[in-house]
């Protein structure tokens, strides 16, 4: 039974991955755009920002964790969009009439999304290496980095599910990703929070993206993990569980 269930998931995920690879718009948004943001921050703003307190390491090393999370966030918008398209085009009704596990339909979207997110992150890391990104992380720390990225990808993917199911059209389906991107910019992704105004700093320090970014940064730099790691896991677990419950509840009503 479990083998058939996972076969259904991977068969359906293959369909989504093929759609993404054939979509030029998707490739531009989820791969090229994060790379352009990284290049812009490093070569346009990098020199000025380093003067404001990031002298201890190259700026590309500093922003890499945030860029990777932005890459995943950009991909999550297309997860929501693909789910909404399947709903509006009647694909869910068609799948429900087939001899497959009903939950495997959403599972296929989630698995495809996470795989595509990790491929996009690998492409961004490769470009980062070409422009000077370096990491002191050990093999174990790289495994932990990958684990955090996978967990973050699952979290945002499941967060995109209820939005994609509830949205009336493709425009609204991906709107939630703008909130995620805003949280990225109001965090320690590009500048230390210590230099922000008091109100903005308090918000930046107490929203989920900052501890996740700080944890990844510590792992890349082979620094001891702090309480940020536990805070990150709590945020990820809470959002993932709530999103999964909400997504499955909405899916049953579709």
From TrEMBL:
Keyword Hydrolase: no
Similarity field: Belongs to the ABC-2 integral membrane protein family.
GO molecular function: ABC-type transporter activity
Domain of life: Bacteria
InterPro entries: ABC2_TM, ABC2_TM_bact-type, ABC_2_transport, Nod_factor_ABC_transporter
PROSITE patterns: ABC_TM2
Protein's name in the database: Transport permease protein
Transmembrane region(s): 27-50, 62-83, 104-133, 139-161, 173-191, 229-247
Gene Ontology cellular-component annotations: ATP-binding cassette (ABC) transporter complex
Subcellular location: Cell membrane; Membrane
Keyword list, A-Z: Cell membrane, Membrane, Transmembrane, Transmembrane helix, Transport
Pfam family, one: ABC2_membrane
Membrane topology: Multi-pass membrane protein
Domain ABC transmembrane type-2: 25-254
Keyword Protein biosynthesis applies: no
